[in-house]
Amino acid sequence: MDFMSEVPSTKPYLIRALHQWCVDHGFTPYIAVFVTEQVHVPMDYVNNNEIVLNISPDACQHLSMDNDWITLKARFAGVPRDIHVPMSHVMAIYAKENGQGMSFPVEKTTPPEPTADKNIGISKGRPSLKLVK
Predict the structure, then answer these.
(1) Which superkingdom does the taxonomy of this entry point to (predicted)?
(2) Which residue ranges form the domains of the chain, and what is each CATH number?
């Protein structure tokens, strides 16, 4: 048995710590994300398979950073969007104002899907009602 293969990644802990450091000191935390089919972001904002997201409390809502996923709600051009980023796809977290932060290698693993109870969906179309008898 290989002990090292069972050791959990430090990456989610470091990302959460740096996010907290940014917020505590009035900096704007940004994450750089490598975009694949597992990443749920507005594709209009993806450039060279990368997107940078502002994850400050002022820019997003319902931010959740567990060991496998970062999920949040944010507006892009005024349109609310659900964002789902596998922790393995975060390339960096840094403060916008001074660039201080940390970069990470992109892991080639597939995380489990985020659980529905952590993510409240936003309707993408017009509201509709059904008559239930």
Answers:
(1) Bacteria
(2) 30-103 (2.30.30.220)
- C-alpha separations of 112 from 84, 116, 122 in Å: 12, 12, 21
Strands (DSSP E) contained in 3-129 are 29-34, 50-54, 60-65, 69-76, 79-86, 90-95, 101-103
pLDDT tens digit sequence for 18-31: 999 999 999 999 99
Report the predicted TM-score, pTM, of the whole model to 2 decimal places.
0.77
| CB neighbours of residue 83 within 10 Å | 22
User: Residues 78-128: pLDDT tens digits?
Assistant: 999 999 999 999 999 999 999 999 999 886 555 566 655 444 333 344 444
CA 71 to chain centre: 5
Are the beta carbons of 88 and 105 closer than 8 angstroms?
A: no
